[in-house]
Amino acid sequence: MAEEEEAKTEANGQQQAPQMRVLGQFIRDMSFENIMAQKGAPSDAQPDVQVQVNLDAKKRTADNQYESAIKLNVTSKVKDGDATLFVLELDYVGIFHVDNVPDEQLHPFLLIECPRMIFPFLRRIVSDITRDGGFPPLNLENIDFLSLYRNELARRQSSEAPKMDA
């Protein structure tokens, strides 16, 4: 019965709703450096945590399959100094099967919706790694992937804009 409705929808020329399935997710690359332990210094200092997020997506060889990656760099320094407490670099990837997304909407879909699906798992990994590294668990705030995407588009457009000579 559902197949008949899909056939009717296609026959009427209406577009089907976008569909996405997570086929897998994995850590492509990870590095955690506990600088304080290497230096033998006490880790009771007040931390200043800086988080950088980069996104990447690419098509896989299979039909309608894509990779969406969140690249996270976390640096924690002593609040009142230059000493680094720890550095965490994590490249977390999701593999997705995507159907019924128009080509002009595919790029934002892969860089907004797909990262949104895998982010809770990345957050847990970051929390576990920092805790296991001897620090309080770092609980990342939610990331607004739409704003991140828009900011990146604006940055690219401003860097491509012709410069005016005064």
Layout of helices and strands:
Layout (H helix, E strand, L loop, with lengths): L1 H10 L7 E16 H5 L7 E13 L5 E14 L5 E16 L3 H30 L12 H16 L6
Antiparallel strand pairs: 1-4, 2-3, 3-4
Helix pairs in contact: 3-4
Main location: cytoplasm
InterPro entries: SecB, SecB-like_sf
GO molecular function: unfolded protein binding
Instruction: Report the biggest beta sheet as strand number plus sense, adding barrel if it closes.
Output: 4 strands, antiparallel
Multimeric organization: single chain
* CATH-assigned homologous superfamily: SecB-like
Low confidence ranges: 1-5
Give the overall form.
elongated
Q: What's the domain count?
A: 1
Second-tier CATH architecture: Roll
> Roughly what fraction of the amino acids lie in strands?
35-45%
* Derived structural class: alpha+beta
At the first level of CATH, the class is Alpha Beta
Please report the distance between the alpha carbons of the first and last residues: 68 Å
Name the helicity range.
Answer: 25-40%
Radius of gyration: 21 Å
| Element-level helix/strand string | HEHEEEHH
Structural summary, described in words:
The chain has helices at residues 2-11, 35-39, 103-132, 145-160, and strands at residues 19-34, 47-59, 65-78, 84-99. The chain has 166 residues and is an alpha+beta fold. The protein has a single domain (24-157), classed as Roll (Bacterial Protein-export protein SecB), CATH 3.10.420. It has a four-stranded antiparallel β-sheet with strand order 1-4-3-2. The longest helix is centred in the C-terminal third of the chain and has 30 residues, at 103-132. The termini are far apart.
